[in-house]
Structure formats: structure tokens, C-alpha cells
Amino acid sequence: MDNALLQGRLLEPSLICIGLSAYDLTWEVQTLPSGGGKLRATNFRQGGGGMAANAAVAAAKLGGRVQFWGRAGDDLAGHAMADELRALGVDVTGLRLFEGARSSVSGIVVDALGERSIVNFRGADLPDDPSWLPLATIAEADVVLGDVRWPDGVAAAFGAARRAEVPTVLDGDVADSAVFDTLLPLTDYAVFSEPGLAGYAPGLTNEESRLRHAIARGCRLAAVTLGERGLVWTDGGSLQHQRGFQVDVVDTTGAGDVFHGAFAFALGTCAGVADALRFAAAVAALKCTQSGGRAGLPDLARVRATLPNLKES
Known about the structure:
The chain has nine helices and 13 strands. It is globular and about 50 Å long. α1 crosses α7 (255-268) and α7 runs antiparallel to α8. A hairpin with a 5-residue loop joins β6 (104-110) and β7 (116-121). It has one domain: UDP-N-acetylmuramoyl-L-alanine:D-glutamate ligase (3-Layer(aba) Sandwich). 31% of the residues lie in helices and 25% in strands. 48% of the residues are buried. The protein is of the alpha/beta class. It starts with 13 loop residues before the first strand and ends in a 7-residue tail after the last helix. The strands form two sheets. It has a nine-stranded mixed sheet with strand order 5-4-1-8-9-10-11-12-13, with helices on both faces. It has a four-stranded mixed sheet with strand order 3-2-6-7.
């Protein structure tokens, strides 16, 4: 990787991240529960989460100028999310808190090996109408990132980005097929989770056929993250593979979100696709070495210092 990502130049790409902001309650335990009963937690923490919101924080930590656009309730969780994003350097003027709506809240249980289980309440009475979004400002962005939790908002933003020739990144987590059918034709870079891609192409049995299924639906590049096994991707040509990095895993919470934010950040610096994916894999791996979806986020100086010495698995 010989581009500006690993050089000493100041990088401040402008990103818009649109989609889910949630409030996370996290318990650390020795082993994940397998049934009913009680478990003793060794630690507890609470704070903001959500796919696009976590991606926004990751990109801001790396040095990006980041806006978050989304919806939440005008409730305690909504105000706490907005306050935390603002404190972490994310512009939240595009986060609207709706009176009478309920914010998305997640309960997360993390075991001693860093694996986790998540229970998410996606909120209630949050309006789908995206007409209030400041779409005209998208032309000033370098990259727009969206997740699958607010399809109407992301479709509006991605449509504006396509018209302005601003690249788009889709966080392809688990969603109804209709959501992907709507968003993929507007997407430049679709990066799926393994369950998200498998759910979108349930009749196909391997990553290559599933990725080609996504490409056929309209995105320009399709990738799938595979945890410690790295990721594979294609732009319609041969299948490419980026191996994972060897790190001491403490907590995988938010690793996929961090990957997306780092990938969008790298694209915003005009990095090539292979370099951007490798950079994102390294940022996500470094995040997993510390507890918390946001507390473990590396800044660009740490990534630059560490990446040359990271070993691929």
C-alpha cells in the first residue's frame, strides 16, 4: 500500500453516513448463554451504536469530516446518541429526533473470547419519509455510506449521490431481499456481512455465486466480510481475496461497522479499491483488540504505525 493512507499527509475526506443510530447496553460475561437462567456479568457499559452511526464515528476518528443523517426518538436514548456523536466529532445536524417516536436500543452480551450476541429493538413510529434530508449538499461529499435500516432515506441519498457522481458504499447486513433490490442499483460498493449475503441469495451455496448475484442486481462491486478469514470481492471479473489480520481479539462488537467506515474513508482519499479494502480490514482488526464498539477505534496515526507489521492469517 503506497498511497497517502500510509504517508504523513493530512487526510480529511468529507463523508455522509446515513442509516441506523442505536443505543447499546453491553454486558461482558465468561460464556454466552445457551438457554434460560442467570449469568453474572464481569462488566457493563452503555453508549451509542448502530451501523451507519458506528461507521461515522470510525471515519471521524481516522480524520474524516463526517455527517450522520438518521432518525431517532425524542427520548433519553435519542438525546444520548446525538450528544455522544457530537462529542466524538460527528456533525449531527442531519440527525432528527421525532416527538412520539421510540429510538432503537440494543442489548449486547460479549463473552471472554470476544464473540457476542445482540438483541435489537429497531425503534417505533420513526417516519420513513426522507423529504427533510438536505440532499443538495451531497454533491459536496467525497463518499456517501448507507446501511439497510432506513431504505427510503438511503435510496434518496444514493440517488442524489449517483446524480452528483459521488461514490456510494452500502453496508449489506441482514435485510429483506426487496431492500437490496431497491438499493443495489444505486450502489457503487456493496459490502455484505456473511449472513446478509447468504440471506439475499439463499439458493446459492458459495461466496462467488452470491456476489455475482448481487452484481447482477446493479452494484458495481460486491464484497463480503468473513471475520478472521478476511473478505472476498468482485467487480464482475475474477474473485479477489483479502486475508484477515492476526490480532488478539477482545471484542468483535461493531467490527463490521468500523470496516465500512474505514473503507468509505479510504475511498474518500482516492485510494484504490484493493488498498481501501486492505486498510479497512486492518482498522477493523485493530478495533477488535479493545473492548467496546467505539472505545477501541484506532486513529490514523495508529493504523499507519501498525499496519506494516500486521501479519495476515
